[in-house]
Amino acid sequence: MRDLRIALYQPDIPGNTGTILRLAACLGLPVDIIEPAGFDSSDRAFKRAGMDYLERASTTRHRDWQAFEEWRQQEKHRLIVLSAKARRSYLDFEYFSGDILLFGRESAGLPETVHQSADARLTIQMRPEARSLNLALSVAMVTGEAIRQVAR
C-alpha cells in the first residue's frame, strides 16, 4: 500500500513547517517541500516547532515546482490541492493511498499553474467572515480525514 504524502509549496513560516514535519513524523507520512522555502532549515523557530522529530521526518526537497511535477507524474501520484479558491469540501472527497495533499504558501497560497495541475481541488469550509486557518491546523485536519479513509 502506497502512503499518503503531504506537500508544502514554498512554505514561508518556519514554525508551521516544523509543526507539520513533526505531525508527519508521528504519523509516518513523507513530506515533500517544494522550494524555495521562505526560511533556512537552521531557523530556530523551525527547529523549536519540530523538536527532536525533525530527524525522524521523511522529507524530500524539490528544487522548484517543475521538478516536483515531473517527479510526481513519473511516480503516478494523484495531486490533491487544498485551497481557499476551491469549492468542494475536503470532507466530500474519496482519498486513495498514494495521494499527495498539497498546501500552499501561508502568505500567497498557490499560483494558477499549480491549480491547473491538480487532479482535485478541495477546501476547508469556514464561516464567511473567517479569513483563514493556520496552515499546520489545516494540514492536520485534511490529513486526518485522508488517513481515516485510506485505513478502512
In summary, what is this structure?
This protein is α/β, with parallel strands linked by helices.
Describe the overall structure.
36% of the residues lie in helices and 18% in strands. With 152 residues, it is an alpha/beta fold. It has a single domain, classed as Alpha/beta knot, CATH 3.40.1280. Helix 1 packs parallel to helix 5 (135-150). The longest helix has 16 residues, at 135-150. It starts with a strand and ends with a helix. The model has no long low-confidence stretch (mean pLDDT 91).
Structural class: alpha/beta
| Terminus-to-terminus distance | 12 Å
Question: What is the chain-wise order of helices and strands?
Answer: EHEHEHEEEHEH
CATH architecture verdict:
3-Layer(aba) Sandwich
Task: Jot down its keywords.
single chain, 152 residues, alpha/beta, Alpha/beta knot, 7-stranded parallel β-sheet
Q: Helices, strands, pairings?
A:
Elements: E1 5-9, H1 14-27, E2 31-34, H2 44-50, E3 59-62, H3 65-75, E4 79-82, E5 88-89, E6 100-103, H4 112-117, E7 120-123, H5 135-150
Parallel strand pairs: 1-2, 1-6, 2-3, 4-6, 4-7, 5-7
Helix pairs in contact: 1-2, 1-5
